[in-house]
Amino acid sequence: MDMRDRFFFLKHYLYSRRFFLVMLFLLLGVILFFAFVFYESKNLLEYVALVLCFLSALFISADAWADYKAYRSQLLYAAGNPQTALESLLKEKVALLELDRKNQVLLEQEKYNDLLDYYTLWAHQIKTPIAASSLLIGDLKDQPAKKQLEQELFKIESYVNLVLQYLRLESFHEDLVLKKENVQDLVKEVVKKYALFFIQQGLSLDLHDLEQSIVTDKKWFVVILEQVLSNSLKYTKEGSIEIYFQEDTLYIKDTGLGIQDADLLRVFERGFSGYNGRLTHQSSGLGLYLSKKIADALGHQLTLESQVGRGTTVKISFSEKKLVFE
Prior knowledge:
- The chain crosses the membrane at residues 20-39, 45-66.
- It is a multi-pass membrane protein.
- By secondary structure, this protein is an alpha+beta fold.
- Helix content is 64%, strand content 12%.
- It has 3 domains: 3-80; 83-170; 176-317, Heat Shock Protein 90 (2-Layer Sandwich).
- The strands form 2 sheets. It has a 5-stranded mixed sheet with strand order 2-4-5-7-6.
- A hairpin with a 2-residue loop joins strand 4 (240-246) and strand 5 (249-254).
- The mean pLDDT is 83.
């Protein structure tokens, strides 16, 4: 029990014994008054007052200790018996409310699990027509149309994977594998996946100082890289993307649209697309939210800086953070 609990007990104990304490002070006041009026009996009356104070202190101490133990048991273990009819009624109502709450929680959990199962099944099933479409696109002779369709199909698959990753956040720690990973290998793996977009948009790529080791979960960290790089490509129409490692921090820097100051504080909120998302109609409002959740759970620090018209720099820091286990 902390000081707040003890203060709460003391306040309510004194309030519950207020009648006794008031009568005690009145009695002591009467005795002292008579001691003042009847001076010849002063010593006797003062002795009586002293004995009364001593006995009252013993009684209050024993009563307070017994009440404190009952309060502590109730606070820690919810153990205790009602002393009055009103307490019995209140305890019964509390028990009924607690039962209703538990039933409601179970019902909501069942609904959530059903919804989770449905979307997980949907995400897995839609991968089949995506794979079939990819094969059909491979047979096209019109190269410009083929490249455009490949790009759009890649976006569809990325959004499906985003849904799956969002659903898997609930079981984040169940398949977590932490070990040393090479930053350059991770970055190159993601960049290779998005190579088509660099070619189509004519963007240059600058990778340097990436021969570093970090402790992370490869699968989840790649998710962060994919979401950040996808955003950079989405909002960078010309120029370049630079990725480098410096002082325990990975930087992903682009020359894109940039983010308005009013949106900067909200970019990691779920469902927030901001001005750029509304302008291009390309934002789900989940990518950066998902990345931030994963980074926090892995013990990494994800932040960004941006200027409108000059681009955005995303920083993933690996220092002074500990992995969070729930």
